[in-house]
Specification:
There is one protein chain. By secondary structure, the protein is α/β, with parallel strands linked by helices. Helices cover about 40% and strands about 20% of the residues. The chain has 24 helices and 22 strands. Strands 18-17-16-20-21-22 form a six-stranded mixed sheet, sandwiched between helices. It has a five-stranded parallel sheet with strand order 4-7-10-1-11, sandwiched between helices. Strands 13-15-14 form a three-stranded antiparallel sheet. Strand 21, helix 23 and strand 22 form a beta-alpha-beta unit. Helix 1 packs across helix 12, helix 13 runs antiparallel to helix 14 and helix 21 runs parallel beside helix 22.
Length: about 675
């Protein structure tokens, strides 16, 4: 078995270490979500966590890791004899792959035994294996939403219930759920974010000395893993003992009325939704007190808990950066402490004074950069509102049209409040990742047919399975009941909706630079980005102006990054439309290789003009015809305004074989207004 990197040897991730430790002390907190850029030891630290947790006792032979001291165990393998054999084993770290199916997570009917022996037997899934351990999901933001819901439900309830395929089973599923993600690859929906108890933002240390220590330790580990682990063996053992003591102490921690009131004041002041924040903060504060050897919650415990439990619950829309104002937090908490208990223990208090100097697990090299980590994480988040605050100074005039010489003043306009756009889809039926946009064959949805079993997982189509077995009953010597074989099995084919790649191709030339027009364009794009976020799409952004086109944002699931790039988009110069369409073809060709199942939808936002290069407009139409002939689903949003219009965007849509939509009709309410107006006129007539 390979030697894991020691937990106590990780440098510069104090908040993450604290969050993971508190969750292991009190699993009822609800798990930890770790957000951060690549290369910040997220996975390394999670995998090292299992090594420092105290071992557990389980009933020998039980597939569900039942605790021998539990009076009423919830295990399908029970009941157990009072003198059942007991074995001690390390805590399991169960990794859930992004491509896992619902059957693999929850467990399902053992198909081979059901068909060959006629026996209904439950085959446990990953939740059963993770009971009393750690369930780790790397890139949790790429996991299907319904699977994330299943994990969070099980983590909150402490049990898993399976009702499917003739199986009705309930078993214990208490585990520490840890998810890691890179925000650049896409965000979790706010509803799912709220279900995680704690969240941590991690970033690479900016201090050169800290970075040197990280490299030095990593190289030493790779040279001789066993010798490196031996260096930190004493620290690991000390950490294990401290966690075990805290686990025993946490149930004795008193959450006084003063502490509960302070927690309520903090949550109310930060305007978090619902009551989950109060509950999680209370549990985390109690765990923090136990971690520091106390049986009462102090101000510092509430502060540490709030820093981890509240930031991700303050987001109101997908473009809000998670974070918390620590100055405001200190102001709310004040300087007062609860009255000391009459029966205090002087020894414990002195230990508290020493240990309360730090709120993170002991580590050989204390980076001491809690504040810098928070500031650097917040500095890394996009702040499109900064641009909107500067706009009145940057915007030179009401109209900034292209000049005869091909130059125009570059301007930056800010988008307005987004609205609900019309739904634009890709035609036909796809087979991409589950989402909420276009029709597709998916794992969830309405049943439309059946197919042979080709791999693991899937829902059984009972009637088609019987039909497949029926013609062979005589040859199989049927006497009374039906006789099945594995190749009789038929699985249901379901039609639902998929997510798509929405590739925006945005005209940022001088003809679009008028402030009013660019505001409308950016607002429309922002509205479509919000819609793409809600429908779980990937997005990409190509901009074109002056003498070429630029891939401003490669296809990604991170909608907030796209919004920040949009806010910074300048306008001015000539219109290289042909070059933009060629760039689009290149991007789509590469993306088809990377993700062949995801169907693209091209959204071209332009007034249709082409002014760069020789024969600019004919060249643009030629490239458009090439794209249209490839069967690409596309949409042209016409940004031309005024009484006298050239209709070039409509011509472009014809060449692309694309849907044509004027800018003013992108909003869903615009179509409603047209219909209402027509009904009103009909009634008046």
């Amino acid at each position: 078995m390979p030697q894991h990197y020691p937990f106590s040897a990780v440098v510069g991730s104090d908040d993450m270490a604290l969050a993971l430790t508190l969750s292991t002390i009190s699993p009822a907190i609800g798990g930890v979500l770790v957000r951060g850029e690549k290369g910040t030891a997220k996975s390394t630290m999670v995998r090292a966590l299992a090594s420092v947790l105290p071992p557990i006792d389980v009933i020998a032979g039980d597939r569900f890791s039942t605790d021998p001291l539990e009076s009423r165990p919830l295990s399908p393998d029970g009941p157990f004899a009072p003198d059942a054999d007991v074995e001690t084993r390390p805590v399991r770290l169960v990794e859930l792959p992004v491509g896992a199916t619902e059957d693999r997570v929850l467990g399902s009917l053992h198909l081979e035994k059901a068909l060959s022996d006629g026996v209904t037997e439950y085959e446990p899934g990953l939740l059963a294996r993770a009971h009393r351990g750690i369930l780790y999901v790397d890139e949790v933001n790429l996991l299907h939403d319904h699977l994330v819901d299943l994990l969070l439900d099980a983590a909150a309830m402490g049990r898993s219930t399976v009702e499917r395929d003739g199986v009705s089973v309930e078993h214990a599923a208490r585990f520490v759920l840890v998810g890691t993600m890179n925000p650049e690859e896409g965000e979790l929906r706010p509803q799912l974010l709220d279900r995680f108890g704690l969240t941590v933002e991690v970033a690479a240390p900016r201090d050169p000395a800290t970075r040197v220590e990280v490299v030095r330790r990593r190289l030493a580990y790779e040279t001789d893993p066993d010798a490196f682990a031996a260096r930190f063996a004493e620290d690991e053992a000390t950490l294990t003992d401290r966690i075990q003591s805290a686990q025993k102490l946490v149930d004795q921690v008193d959450l006084s009325d003063w502490a509960l009131l302070k927690i309520a004041e903090v949550c109310a002041a930060f305007e978090v939704d619902g009551m989950r924040a109060d509950i999680v903060t209370a549990r985390a504060a109690a765990a923090h007190a136990a971690w520091n050897g106390r049986t009462s919650v102090l101000r510092e415990d509430i502060r540490a808990a709030a820093r981890l439990a509240l930031p991700h619950r303050r987001r109101r829309n997908p473009f809000d950066a998670p974070g918390i104002d620590e100055d405001l937090l200190d102001q709310i908490l004040g300087d007062d402490e609860p009255e000391p208990e009459p029966e205090g223990d002087g020894t414990d208090e002195s230990q508290t004074t020493e240990e309360s100097q730090t709120s993170e697990p002991d580590s050989p090299a204390d980076a001491g950069n809690d504040e810098s980590d928070v500031s650097s994480a917040s500095d890394g988040e996009p702040r499109p509102e900064r641009h909107s605050q500067r706009e009145p100074q940057q915007e030179p005039q009401q109209q900034a049209e292209q000049q005869p010489g091909g130059t125009s003043e570059v301007t930056v306009a800010a988008p307005q409040q987004p609205y609900r756009p019309k739904l634009f889809t890709v035609g036909g039926t796809g087979a991409g990742e589950s989402g909420k946009r276009s029709r597709a064959i998916t794992e969830t949805g309405r049943r439309i047919g059946a197919q042979r079993r080709t791999g693991q997982g899937g829902s059984i189509h009972l009637m088609e399975t019987i039909r497949a077995a029926a013609p062979h009953q005589h040859a199989r010597g049927r006497v009374d009941s039906l006789r099945f074989r594995a190749d009789d099995l038929r699985l249901a084919v379901k039609e639902g909706h998929e997510s798509n790649l929405i590739l925006f191709c945005v005209d940022a030339s001088g003809s679009m630079a008028a402030r009013k027009r660019m505001e409308q364009v950016k607002t429309a794009i922002l509205s479509l980005l919000v819609d793409a976020y809600q429908r779980r799409d990937k997005v990409g952004l190509i901009t074109f102006r002056a003498d070429g086109a630029e891939l401003a944002l490669p296809p990604t699931g991170s909608i907030d990054i796209a919004a920040s790039r949009l806010a910074e988009l300048p306008a001015g110069g000539r219109t290289p439309l042909a070059e933009a369409l060629l760039k689009t073809a290149d991007v789509l060709r590469l993306e088809r290789v990377r993700d062949p199942r995801r169907r693209p939808l091209l959204v071209v936002i332009t007034d249709g003009r082409a002014t760069y290069g020789d024969n600019a407009l004919p060249r643009a139409h030629q490239v458009a015809r090439h794209l249209g002939a490839s069967g690409l689903a596309s949409l042209v949003i016409d940004c031309e305004t005024g009484k006298f219009r050239m209709g070039l965007a409509h011509q472009l849509a014809d060449h692309l074989m694309a849907e044509y939509v004027p800018l003013g009709e992108v909003s869903a309410s615009a179509l409603t207004d047209v219909v209402r107006s027509g009904l009103h006129e009909t009634g008046a007539a």
